[in-house]
Amino acid sequence: MSPVRDSTARALLHRVAAEQAGSRLPSLAAAVVREGEIAWFGARGRAEGRPPAPDTQYRIGSITKSMVAVVVMRLRDEGRLDLLDPIGEHIPGTPAGEVTVAQLLSHTAGLTAEPPGPWWERTPGAPFGDLLARLGPGTSRHRPGRRYHYSNLGFGLLGELVARHRGTGWDQAVREEVLRPLGMTGTTTRPREPYARGYAVHPWADVLLPEPEHHAAAMAPAGQIWSTPADLARWAAFVAGDTGDVLDAATLAEMREPAAVDDGDTWTGGYGLGLQLARAGGRRLAGHTGSMPGFLAAVWADPADRTGVLFLSNSTSGASRTLPMDLLAILDEHEPRLPAEWRPRRVDADLLELAGLWYWGPAPYALRLTGGRDLSLDPVGGAGRASRFAARPDGTWLGLDGYHAGETLRAVRRPDGSLSHLDLATFVFTRTPYDPDADVPGGVDPGGWRS
After folding, report:
1. Which run of H or E residues covers position 208?
2. pLDDT in tens, 278-337
3. Beta bridge partners of 34
4. Which of 91, 125, 193, 270 has the fewest CB atoms found within 10 Å of its own CB?
């Protein structure tokens, strides 16, 4: 992938420079990723006396959770667990053992945000047995499934789930099953040189306070990992869809589906399975933010055009939440995405016969061919239930999203082979409104339409 143009690079660097100076960050590194490669890297400030480089390590905090979630999904795909399994089936004796693996992954289990005891991010961690012994009635804060409530404790449990199934530490499983196959050799659970030390910046003076750094032990799966801009660029490419042999593409797409939102019906932020979700500037993004004492980080990816953005800083607080989205907005302003070229393609005759207008009762819908043998069914005028459908080997189609996600669409033919109607989860779509010659449930008034 070619780098961004000079004018784009200047605008991106200006935004990073303004952030580092205005937010008083000891150092700040950022990158834009396109089609799996770093298209731009920029940095300001100093990390231990040197400008940050693509191989400079920073602690990435909760981005760790996404990597742990990938191993959990691999276990699911191997048949070792089901996402609907209660966690108590895998970790006996766990309070709130009725919450499911999926609820833990999506922060809808209702567990307390933090583990009991001292502030876990600033104190040495304890083994899982000690953590388990400290859990009690206060472990649950909400009814499981009721609402989104971010829980670091939940990922402590998921890390133990991984460890018990793999017979090794969660970190070794992540390293062998995720990091190594993706070529993320600069990503580790403890820092290695060159790495940025973490600081707090005094709110009213330009002085620094070193932050403590400990191994979090049982809570490590919630935020232990250190990484580099170069490695997080590879991670952004992974989230965007370049999964290599690590995860099936359909499983990654499942992780990116909204399981919970935290800002209402017109959501701009939510959570999938181990991945945070956001909508900004016409993009639908997946990734994660991270914070630990002395560090802030974020990585976001847009699967639609394989674009990603990331930043890393060694400050406890201060960096703007909008920085990644601002960088993407600059990229879109200076180098807007070109639509893919339209080209005609071969279409099977039986599919072409399906295309066009159909009616659900009196409501018109357009059925379009979207590539291969896949379809979309959209209300004419935009008001109604739209869904995409993937072709199945048996000649039916599976709903992928919207109201009809998971439902089956069938093309029903008459004994002579002519096309009669579409059957979608008992709903009948006909070529004309309430076609009297089709098998409309409840029948059609024999008097027909009247004034």
Report:
1. strand 208-210
2. 999 999 999 999 999 999 999 999 999 999 999 999 999 999 999 999 999 999 999 998
3. 37, 307
4. 193
Q: Looking at this protein, which amino acid is placed at residue 435?
A: D
Q: How far is the CA of 101 from the CAs of 244, 281, 421, 444, in angstroms?
A: 25, 32, 41, 48
Q: Where are the domains of the chain?
A: 6-334, 349-430
Sequence-distant (6+) residues with CB within 8 A of 309 are 30, 31, 32, 33, 236, 299, 300, 301, 324, 327, 328, 331
To the nearest 10 degrees (0 to 180), the angle between helices 63-77 and 229-240 is 40
C-alpha dist (Å) from residue 359 to 356, 384, 385, 427, 434 = 10, 12, 12, 10, 7
Q: What is the pTM of this model?
A: 0.90
- CATH, domain 349-430, list 2.40.128, 1.10.3470, 3.40.50, 1.20.1050: 2.40.128
**What would the DSSP string read from start to end of 51-87?**
---TT-BEE-TTHHHHHHHHHHHHHHHTTS--TTSBG
Report which of 135, 173, 190 is spatially closest to residue 157, judged by C-alpha positions.
Answer: 135
